[in-house]
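thought: user wants a sequence for this fold. calling inverse folding tool.
action: design(structure=
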């Protein structure tokens, strides 16, 4: 079996992003008997109200205290992914494909599941080497270089060759479940060493890389992690059109992939150019979106 896995816990904004992502999947992939969607949420009723009672969607039961336990010793919401994937691997054996809710599908992932079955590890996108990445990546490299952390019989180190992958996608075969405890332990060590949000994705990147090459999937979906300001408008769309057939078309009118690329282009300008644009009042801003 193949499983798409979403984590939509706590925030209505996160649930609303998930609606868009799931509806975009429906546009690119036919329903298949060997593929199910797992939604880990504390509000299944809201999903069923918008998406209906679909046989291809399951809502695994999670006890309230389990959500807190999944945050680990570091007490980080990012670490919920580890617990969710561990639960999925134990209860839904097969090919697991976790993705963040702020994603929009571009292509049918069927070929990816074939590669997962063959043992491939996927994350969303290779963000490059820490040593030459963005400002935060370079700070992390300088702070962590020279440190060592044991994990699963390996010694993890941050070196000039360490690559950071975006953890908006995490995909692997469920018989690799033993890696998840190691990812959690490594992430907790990393947070204890340097308490920055990206330690979770660094833990995945380091531990998966110890198993072999990590592949990425930027051509299969948009991951608009840089557009948090769009969340209120996405929620307005759901509030207005949530039970209507045109909900997906109303999401598409927001043109989030285009805005995602525009903001990234600005973010990736040399520092002096961004500073100059700020001084000239030309800093990139989210345009006013209407519903």
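)
observation: tool returned 291 residues.
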């Amino acid at each position: 079996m193949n499983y798409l896995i979403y984590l939509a816990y706590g925030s209505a904004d996160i649930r609303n992003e998930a609606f868009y992502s799931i509806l975009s999947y429906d546009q690119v992939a036919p329903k298949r008997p060997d593929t199910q969607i797992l939604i880990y949420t504390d509000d299944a009723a809201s999903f069923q109200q918008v998406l209906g009672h679909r046989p291809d969607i399951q809502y695994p039961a999670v006890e309230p205290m389990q959500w807190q336990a999944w945050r680990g010793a570091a007490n980080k919401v990012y670490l919920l992914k580890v617990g969710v994937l561990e639960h999925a691997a134990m209860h839904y054996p097969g090919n697991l494909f976790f993705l963040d809710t702020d994603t929009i599908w571009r292509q049918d992932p069927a070929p990816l599941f074939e590669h997962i079955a063959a043992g491939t590890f996927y994350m969303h996108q290779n963000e490059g080497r820490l040593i030459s990445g963005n400002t935060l990546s370079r700070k992390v490299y300088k702070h962590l270089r020279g440190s060592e952390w044991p994990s699963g019989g390996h010694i993890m180190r941050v070196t000039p060759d360490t690559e950071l992958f975006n953890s908006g996608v995490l995909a692997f075969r469920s018989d690799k479940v033993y890696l998840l405890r190691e990812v959690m332990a490594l992430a907790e060590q990393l947070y204890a060493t340097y308490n920055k949000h990206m330690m979770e994705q660094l833990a995945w990147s380091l531990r998966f890389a110890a198993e072999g090459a990590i592949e990425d999937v930027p051509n299969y979906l948009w991951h608009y992690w840089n557009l948090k300001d769009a969340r209120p408008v996405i929620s307005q769309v759901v509030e207005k059109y949530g039970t209507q057939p045109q909900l997906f078309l109303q999401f598409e009118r927001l043109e989030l992939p285009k805005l995602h690329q525009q903001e990234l282009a600005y973010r990736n300008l040399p520092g002096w150019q961004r500073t100059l644009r700020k001084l000239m009042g030309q800093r990139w801003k989210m345009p006013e979106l209407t519903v």
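thought: summarizing for user.
answer: Here is the designed sequence. The chain has two domains: 2-223, 228-279.
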